[in-house]
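User: Hey, my collaborator sent me this sequence without any context and asked if I could get a structure. I don't really work with proteins. Can you help?
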Amino acid sequence: MGPEDLNHILSALPKTRRSPKLLVGPETWDDAGVYRIAKNLALAQTVDFITPVVDNPRHFGAIAAANALSDIYAMGGKPTLALSIVCYPSDTGDLDVMREILRGGVAKLREAGVVLLGGHSVRDREIKFGFAVTGEVHPRRIVTNARARLGDLLVLTKPLGTGILATALKRGVLPVPALRAMTREMSTLNRVASEAMVAVQANAATDVTGFGLLGHALNMARASGKTLRIWSNAVPFLPNTLELVRSGVASAGLTANQSAVAPQVSWADGVPEPARLAMVDPQTSGGLLVALPASRVKAYLTLLSRRRIRGVVVGEVVRQARRLLEVAV
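Assistant: No problem. I've predicted the 3D structure and written it out in structure-token form, which is a compact way to encode the shape of the chain:
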């Protein structure tokens, strides 16, 4: 569901008294809720499930798991427990396919050190799969999207383009090397990026998923009371992403994301249209967008590279301007 539709729905909910134990709620559109249960322990909770983005069922299961775990990593937390969510046409679908999806998901949970407690399944004409995830985080080490500071640099830990490439796959026009690159990135946990940002004491973070890079950057800018300036030439894209956009390939949620951020984006004249569209492309299991002082960027990038994760500096945090996002060349 697009951000404008979600905002319309959520604005109708009655306001309730906020518990002092609720450390991060829905007000800032952060990645997960955080609730204190002890002096030195809080729980981070999230839920995410998706429709297939690749044809291989085991790969899809792994991607769905990595995608759900990402919200906990974005808060600086350690995911610990999960419950599966399965929608499947059991009367017409091949149950062996569903078994492979589950195997892929459980294997990814095991890689993350997460215990699967159980789950829930329903019959549905369309396959959907994902997890409700609980993680642990120290109350004083939570990384939210609301603390980006003036002068911070922005680091992105995965290239963009999964929505566009997945759409190309459905249309039968995605080259095999691009499919492999997309699958590899979506299956990669954000654990390394998260542990490294906690180690260098990053100020703020969010994961780049359904609202696209600019949608999630907008949430960070609004929550932090700053403007985020994105350097378009620095933004990394998956192979074939911009070429596919030029040929007319666009993911289903791209237009909704574009409309949602449009009033808050100032575009430099030299930013090409394909890049503009790719920066609002809905991502599945995207990377982290991390705001941290310039003095800590080298240390962060070094920690990432040691674990074979490529971080790229893609922008900076500036004083709040008339528009909360600026996209420069």
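In plain terms: The domain at 153-328 is CATH 3.90.650.10 (Phosphoribosyl-aminoimidazole Synthetase; Chain A, domain 2). You can pass these tokens on to your collaborator as they are.
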